[in-house]
Amino acid sequence: MVDAPTLLPEGRTDDRTRLGYAMVATAATLFAVNGSVSKVVLDSGLSSLELAQIRATCAALGLLVFLLAFSRASLRVGRRELAFLAAFGIVGVALVQWLYFVAIHNLPVGVALLIEFTAPLFVALFARFVYREHIRRRIWVAVVLCLAGLAVVVEIWAGVAFSTVGVTAALGGALGLTAYLLMAERERRHRDPVSLSFYGFLFAAALWAVVQPLWEFPWDVFDDSVSLQGNLSDHSAPVWALVGFIVVIGTMVTFSLLTGALRHLSATRASIVATLEPVVATAVAWAWLGESFGAAQLVGGCIVIAGILLAQSAR
After folding, report:
1. What are the domain boundaries of the chain?
2. pLDDT for residue 206 is more than 90
3. Angle between helices 295-312 and 276-288 (to 10 degrees)
């Protein structure tokens, strides 16, 4: 009878941890599917910039509605914080999403994500040399694994087997994602993740509105239907439905799942589970779009993922 009260909380803790893992795994899977959906949309006539613009704008509007309904107080922002949030939205959200769309438009989805997911490696190196944090020695093993694995993936001995534009965009996306992670980690002490995401998308949408005013956006493309390509080329879907999936499922639902998971898991554990994304994305792109990896890409991909996992646990 004495042990019963102790065992119950432990059971609940385990249940919450399992829920956190399930939420991250679900988000990673949805993000992975979103990659193939985005690639189909990019072939419908929308450019990478236009897709990034509509995604950020609609996500900002959706999150604003949610916050107005459930957490109006979190919308308050001070003058000093405003500049930081603007930088977060422009660098950490707008540029990362745009570069990601450029990358998957020119590379197989799995290759683009493998390169972009090296961001935790740069986060650990930044923490070591800028923040002067103690970093486990395994980070140097992670550096070697990631560099060697990426060299194998892009077949550097053959002069890079993939689009130079795509590889460059993916590397730029990795650096932008590094900035996003570091800035989000800093701001999480002062602001909840939902309102932080809202302001990120808001300033991203504002940037794209300056680059391309909304009245110049090719709204008529939403009336078109586009082939689903690859193994689903006999089927088609309206562009508005595919973009709706990207905004609602591939952005708002996934970000909500990740935000909720952090209540049950540490950021390090969550990021390790999120490494499922390039793996699942490769499988989805193979089954749907017919994208396939050669032996070199499969071996190199496994090496990169091993390096990423080491980097995630180095801080």
Report:
1. 4-312
2. yes
3. 150
